[in-house]
Amino acid sequence: MIYNERDIRHSHVIEAAKQMMIAARTAPKARGCDIIEVMLVVEDDIRTLSDTLRKIGEERERPGMIRDAENILSAEAILLIGSKEQPMGLNCGYCGSATCDARGTGVPCAMNTIDVGIAIGSACATAADLRLDTRVMYSAGYAAQQSGWLPGCNYIIAIPVSAGSKNPFFDRK
Questions:
Q1: Which of 51, 60, 153, 158 has its CA 20 to 30 A from that of 25?
Q2: Does the global pTM surpass 0.70?
Q3: Does any domain span residue 68?
Q4: C-beta neighbour count of 128 within 10 angstroms
């Protein structure tokens, strides 16, 4: 049997994105508490996410969001990584409050934010090891959050994924 890379590329990207999901899941987390949620978006749902992001960009007059809405259409998959809110009880002060109990309503636990960052780093490192093209995007993650994807997550970051001769997520207009 003979395989042409162009014929198997898409299936490879999807399988590699699934490996990125596992890398995000197994990334270290504060106190070992797993408050990370991970989702893979493919096919028509990429268009749905793009349409939502475009609408938000137009409503808020944010050209960068409109640009990103067009840009994610080049993705073969989009990984979403979000965090549920759960104070870690460390009283670390990184959120700006002296204790977790003193933290104001709507102020995220810094450890939750750090956990998302570590998960993103693990997923992107896996993508780099597999020679995939990616970019970390808050904008597409925000559109996913506004759409109710990853319920219970108070913030979401998106990582569009592709495999081509040029990374479509850089050198954007």
A1: 51
A2: yes
A3: yes
A4: 11
